[in-house]
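Tutorial handout. Part one gives the primary structure; part two gives the three-dimensional structure as tokens.
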Amino acid sequence: MTPKKKANSIFTRKPQGDFSLLPRVWGGFLEKYRWTHFITLTTQSPTSPELLLKFGQSYIGRIERLAGCRVYRFIIVEGSFDGAAHIHGLLNVDQLTIEQLRKQWRHGITHIVKYDCGRGAASYIAKEILNNDHVDFEFPTAENEPSHKSGTIR
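Part two.
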């Protein structure tokens, strides 16, 4: 008998019951943080969500090295019917320009804009919470220590 893998977080368990309000709750949660940029990152060819998340994590590592600081973020892989998955994300990184952020993505097209809390990006990203398996985020805690989670949501 193969032992069951133990889930390390509620985000790795499949939701049970009615979770229709979860995206709205997550959107409200994300809106409470200070974001500087809304990003969309695509690849030149179809890429698995797992590999795309790894590309996204490498991208974050490159911008952290360039900025010389921790980059707080919420990135989520969004699938599509044609297999062209892409990343949406919120970043908090004052040290870099949009052009510097664009140059760090090595896999395709970017769309990066200054974050405007009135335009609904946090809620837009949160809509993928129930339809998605791949996310990476890091938020500052009350003690200014990072809170980090990467992996699956369901």
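Part three, for discussion. Residues 1-10 have pLDDT under 50 and may be disordered. The chain is about 25% helix and 25% strand.
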